[in-house]
Amino acid sequence: MRKKIVVGNWKMNKNVAEGVALASSILENLDGGKMACEVGIAPAYPVLSEVGRVIEGSDICLVAQNCHYEDEGAYTGEVSVRMLDSLGCSYIIVGHSERRQYFGETNRTVNLRLKKALEGGMRVILCIGETLEEREAGVTDAIVTAQVREGLANIENLGDVVLAYEPVWAIGTGKTATPEQADAVHASIRATIRDMYGNADAEGIRIQYGGSVKPSNAVELFGMPNIDGGLIGGASLKADDFVAIVNAAG
What we know:
The protein is of the alpha/beta class. Helix content is 44%, strand content 15%. The chain has an eight-stranded parallel β-sheet. Helix 2 (48-55) links the parallel strand 2 and strand 3. The longest helix is centred in the last third of the chain and has 19 residues, at 179-197.
């Protein structure tokens, strides 16, 4: 049985003091970080070190929101896998729709980041998802399949990869795919993995749902057969909401 995973993506929110306070509250309310599901929090880069100190020794994973695909060099504003490893990160998110939309990331550059993260001993959350226009045009499966195939190009072992299906039209909008809609896309993603890697990998890989997950809908979403937890945005910025979502997965 796949162990569910819930990760809070704080995006560009919370300074150091605010992040420490939020992480401390989450830790306290999760009984010192002992949970039935896997849990991670992804602060902004400047907050990673201090939040890492707060959750050190607990079962909560420190997660980075992105990485560069080179080890070092003249890449102003970028952060390498080696740097993130030195801060205690164990997961890196790649391919988030906001990175694709605002910063020009493509399936190819997402694949390069994923490879570099895996080479550096990290586990990776690969984000995929369609826009509202693509869903209305009936090309959801084609878009998501291409993102999976190209994002995982030349990746032989999926043991350290988690997929996160995030319909772009549901991120930060308050709109949420119905559990049935979300599960149908998750099933399609699993079928793509089965075609690429075989049945064992398809059944074993965890696929999170992201897109306006809240305490009020988490239980129903996480109860679907192909949904293995959530990548949580806005609700992860409130300790009570995030803890309730974690408990819904556990």
